Structures are given as structure tokens and as C-alpha cells.
Fold this sequence. Notes:
With about 350 residues, the chain is mainly beta. The chain has three domains: about 200 residues, no CATH class; about 60 residues, Complement Module, domain 1 (Ribbon); about 90 residues, Complement Module, domain 1 (Ribbon). Helices cover about 10% and strands about 25% of the residues. The longest helix is centred in the N-terminal third of the chain and has 12 residues. About 20% of the residues are buried. The structure holds 2-acetamido-2-deoxy-beta-D-glucopyranose (NAG) (2 copies). One 2-acetamido-2-deoxy-beta-D-glucopyranose binds next to loops.
Amino acid sequence: MDCALLLLSLWALAGSASLQTAGLCPERLLGQERRRTCPRTCTLDQDCGSKRQCLCDGQCGLSCVAPGRTCPWPLPVAENADLRLLSPTHSFSALLEVRCKPGFTLSSGLDAVIRRCQGDRQWSGDEPTCTEAQTAELEPEETLSCPLPQDVTDMFNIQGNASVGTWIHYSCQSGADLVGSSENFCQENQTWQYPHPICKKVFCQPPRDVEFGYVVAVQRTEYEVGFDVHFLCKKNFLLDGPQKVTCLSNGSWSKASPHCRTRCLIPAERSRVEIGGVKRWPFDVTDAMVPHGENVTFFCKHPNKMCSYTAAQTCFDGLLHPPACYLEPTWLQYKLFPHRLVSEIEACEPEEMD
Length: 354
Ligand SMILES: *[C@@H]1O[C@H](CO)[C@@H](O)[C@H](O)[C@H]1NC(C)=O
Ligand SMILES: *[C@@H]1O[C@H](CO)[C@@H](O)[C@H](O)[C@H]1NC(C)=O
């Protein structure tokens, strides 16, 4: 662009000998000249006397000039501009480039101007001044931004304004995982440095199966965040753990799946035992079984005295062992001396137990 402007301005100077010889020298434009007066106008060299020639002098048109006369050179160092002579000499018709330093421009908005050495020994045009480039002119560039399509703004909460030279930060709307780079840079050419990330919806994997139980939910390969799964145990099994779990936003279930615990057979036949504070014969208990977690209190005989003491055991998932001190009475003991069974004799006094 600079180059084209330079050519244009060269053309506009219209001061070259070739233009003159081609008869293209402009008519003198009176009133257009600024701080100088035009030399005498002419049509032929003969009009100008022996020391001068009839040459094209820019806006002055054909004028009587002394071709050997020179314009001031070197010029004092210009503020904010570089001066460069484009011609081998600084005499009539020589060209001088005035180029503003980076960040400075002429009042015309251009950053360079060509001046021509005129017949009055002055460089053409006004004294150029380079001033600091207006920030207003840079502003449109600063507001350039990178595109953010609707499907991207719908999917993410975006921090930052997507303008050229800045970073933005993405975060997925609730419950979704971000896959890819969570930050992006808007490049000079208004494109993003990285592809936009994607939001992957979070799911929970099916909860662990519960042996002897049921998962009360539509069977799925994955469950959405917030989905509840309920559990039930088969008959005679006791639920150990949560009755319900919820799919959390991080893809985990709120609790581990429960267990369905089985009942225990009471390991005594010919003694009463205490279950839930009630002393009972095992055969009077349904199926002679207690549920998981139930405490069963057994009666043991004092090693030396004719009194009993108790020892409790807990049913755990089908396992209930009698305490070491418990002795199962024989069938004869049970049949012939039922009142002398350990579970039926007096309890030892606390002081007897020392
Ligand atoms: C999911 O979140 C819960 C509760 O905030 C936490 O206890 C659990 O450890 C998390 N699970 C994973 C895999 O991060
Ligand atoms: C069984 O005994 C333990 C310990 O004494 C107690 O924590 C638990 O609650 C009891 N279980 C029942 C079902 O009473």
C-alpha cells in the first residue's frame, strides 16, 4: 500500500523532464502555490535568457529555471522522521522522501511524503510534521475478536471477552466434564489457538449388584446425575446399608450398594436362649432362626457352682457361633431333668462370678 501511494505521489509531482517533453506539464495554477512565488512562465528556452531553461516546475507549470541550482541539503535532522534523497543530487527536480518514524504519522494519515526540489530552490509542499499515531486509529484493531459460535456459548460459562490477544476460560454447565483445553487464546488473525473443548455429560455406572436382593430401577447401562436407585432384599434377608443411592455430579454413587444379609440358625436346641430380651426355646422361634444383626444370649454353667451366667453372640450374615462356655444338654438331660438344664437354674450372683 505504501508503495502504491509512493507511486501515486510521484505521479502527482508531475515535475519530471519526461512529462515535460511529453507536453504533460500542467498549466500554472495561480493561487495554488503556497509560500513561494513561481519563476517566470515560459514556453521555450529562448524565453528565459542564457542562464535559464524553460522547464516544468510542478504546479508552476513551465517556468524559467536554472537547472543547476540546488535545494537545501543536508536538511536539519527532522523530529520523528527520516529524510532520504531519492535522486543522485539535490538540484532542480530532485526527490526527497520524508518518512515518519514507527508510531508516527503525517497529518494526512500517511507515514511518508515525497518532496520535489522546485525552481525557487525550495522543497515542495509544507514542512511535514510527524505526530504520534492516534490511539483512536488503533482502537478498532483492539476490539477485533475471535468468533464464539452459539453452540459453544450455550455449552460453557465463558470468562473473558474473546478479543484479539487475550485468553478466555471455559467451564461446563453443571454436571458435565470438560474434555480438552479449558483455556484458549485469541490470535492476531482472529482465530483460536486451540479447538474449543467439549462438555461430556457425567453418568454413573450401574451400581454393584446386590446378592439376594433387587435393584429397584429400570436397568440401564448408565444413569444420569441425580438419579436414585433403590434396593430391596429377598424374603428372610436383611438390608445392611443404604436403602437408596443417588448418582452424584462426579459420577459416583452417594453410597456403596448395600448387602442383603441372611438369617442365622440358633445353635442351641435343648436350652432356652434370650432373644430381644425374651427367654425362649429355639423351636418356638420361627424356623429356629434369627435375623442378621440379632443378639442371642446363651446360658452357661458356673464351673464350680450350681448357677448360670450369660454370654451373648451376634448373628452376622448366616454365622452365629455359640459361646465357648455353652454346652448343649444331652437328650437324656433334656428329657429327664428339664428343670436342671443350665438355662433353667438360678443365675449366679455377681459376687459368685469373681
Ligand atoms: C464424588 O463426590 C463425593 C462427595 O462429594 C466424594 O465423597 C467422592 O469421593 C467423589 N468421588 C470421586 C471419584 O471423586
Ligand atoms: C447387639 O449387641 C450389640 C453390642 O452389645 C449392640 O450394639 C446391638 O445394638 C445389639 N443388636 C440388637 C439387634 O439388639
